[in-house]
């Protein structure tokens, strides 16, 4: 028995030490793989981002070829010659240089004679090792978003169930007490009957009741009628989950970058797809961790990348080969803000001449994942603003004289839009 | 059962009123013919020929306010524009100020306030590799050409900015470049 026991122990020791060795060697090799010269990587990345990134990406083709693994494809000497002055290299009759130049349809790469050999080596080193790995702190993975709140109707149903339960319990208790010999009470229904009989005999209550009913129905009726044609809060589902919060908020793109016709035109038009492509030709994927709440669902990177693909489909952009196929189709955005045809509202007048901030009418657009109509856009709303807003009289030589006369006429230094005739019917209805 | 009909009607009316406030639908319109334009509206789905009203100008015509640009989107024409094209505007303080205003809307996100390629999108590494104006050999003509046709990763901004505004931007970019070169 003893020999067996010893054998068992020996085996255990042997196995344990083997496992330890295995783990050790594995961890060592893992460390060995991760050893990156951070200083060179940083220097190379800085140079690369400044000089190369406008035309090259590491992992995919852009204006020029993808640069990851370029050191395996080409000799170091050749790369240095090409980077410093590719035109001279081509002129010297280098076959590889001419081939790559023709492959990219003769787009000329800038020459970088200012780069030293060490700097070029740093850039090439960066293309080998890539970006520094993000350090993920242990336990950093926290389920974000959490539980969605219960929808309103569930709460209403629950409330109704609870009230019903109380009523049933009350009735049961009453029945029990009656069965136990308590005197029979008229009950709530009986009490109501008595009150009703009293009301029927009281003329004053009749009058008060009728007035109350009339006022309530008038309130509801007029409220309903006043909301006819007022689309405040209108938020249709759009064909692309475009988030103003990301574009105008996080990325601080000016409103007029996309809505460029606002400054000269009646309309602040919906941008055509070429405006999207000004940025999205380069940006084919959203950043990690981007979240957009759209139509009650939280969209993350996987879904949002497909939304960018929708722009490519509309523009006919082939993201693999980086060229336009010519097969375009319109994106059918749903219009939100729409004034009746009998009003002439001009964006240019408000944006360019008056210098009104877009937010004043369109609300906190930079916080909206999903766009909605912020203002009521009713006539009263227009007039309120025209009555309260002062006209900027300074620096307008053409109107200087009339502005001066107006200021004297109204006895103030400031003149409101209304005093300038901004609430005359014909100003907007013509 | 008869007495319940009243309550049902009341409920129905209430439901109709409540259902009016669906945010995905427009409100009812009083006399829709006063709301909807008889002429074709901008961005309308259906235009004169039944297709979208958002069309390019007919071949051989020039849209009002536009100025034709003869240089094509090729390397040869880029060089040509670079050497021979110059601003037709009177370049004064007023146009410089307008140029700055337009630059702040259309260029600053990438090229930065000083034109050193350090705009917000560049800092946030959303759009990297924006060159500084001082590192590029650019002229009035080449700047205008690039605004018209784009170059490499920069797209054409011709549709967003008018002829005069482009030249005002060119003036302002020239000023930024000179400031950087100082």
Please provide the ordered H/E string of secondary-structure elements of chain A: HHHHHHHHHHHHHEEHEEHHHHHH
Radius of gyration of chain B, rounded? Answer: 26 Å
Tally of DSSP helical segments of chain A: 20
Strand content of chain A: under 5%
And the CATH topology of the largest domain in chain B?
Cytochrome Bc1 Complex, Chain D, domain 2
Structurally, the number of domains of chain B stands at 2
Portion in beta strands of chain B: under 5%
How many extended strands of chain B?
Answer: 0
Main sheet makeup of chain B: none
Uncertain segments of chain A of ≥5 residues (pLDDT<50)? 25-32, 137-148
Determine the fraction of residues in helical runs of chain B and give it as a percent range.
40-55%
Stretches of chain B where pLDDT is under 50 for at least 5 consecutive residues are none
Report how far the terminal alpha carbons of chain A are from each other: 111 Å
Mean pLDDT of chain B: 85
How would you describe the oligomerization state of the chains in this entry? heterodimer
- β-strand number of chain A: 4
Morphology call of chain A: flat
Q: What name goes with the CATH superfamily of the largest domain in chain B?
A: Cytochrome c-like domain
Question: Number of helix segments of chain B?
Answer: 7
Protein chains sharing the most extensive interface: A-B, 55 and 49 residues
Tell me the strand order in the biggest sheet of chain A.
Answer: 1-2
